[in-house]
Structure prediction request, 80 residues.
Amino acid sequence: AQLSGSAGCNRFSGPYTADGRTLATGPLIATKMACPGAAMTQEQAFFKLMTGPVTTEFPTNGTMEITGADGQTAVLKRAI
Prediction:
C-alpha cells in the first residue's frame, strides 16, 4: 500500500504496512523545496518520526495522531 501527503513544505509518498494500530513506512521520498523557518523544522521532525514504526489513533473525524517509540507525537489533518 502507498501513502502520500504534505509534511508542511514538501510533498511525500512511499510504501507502508499496518498491523493493528502500528504503522511502518519507508522509504519515503519527498520533493526538495526549502521553506523558511519553522516549516522546515516541523517537517524535519515529522520525517524523523516516520523513520520508525508509529502508533496511530483517530481522535476525531479527519484527524490522525501518530506517536513514535520516544513519545514524540504529530497530528495529521485531512486536506479538503
